[in-house]
Amino acid sequence: MKTKATFYHAGCTVCLAAEQNIVPTIDRDRYDVEIVNLGEQGNRIDEAKAIGVQSVPVLVIDNQPFHINFGASLADLG
Description:
This protein is an alpha+beta fold. It has three helices and four strands; from the N terminus they run βαβαββα. The termini are far apart.
């Protein structure tokens, strides 16, 4: 069974650069990867907050957020 990995971002240039550089490096044989643009999917902001996401871009593996760089605070998104 694969582990879930979710990459949350807001569509900003910092987030898109992180997506282009980080997501392709994830081993798809080990992880089911989901990309969530919180700028377009604002209904998922509460989900991200509940996991502990504070800013985007962030990669969440097994409900553990790994903040990559500061693009936007979750508080600024919703």
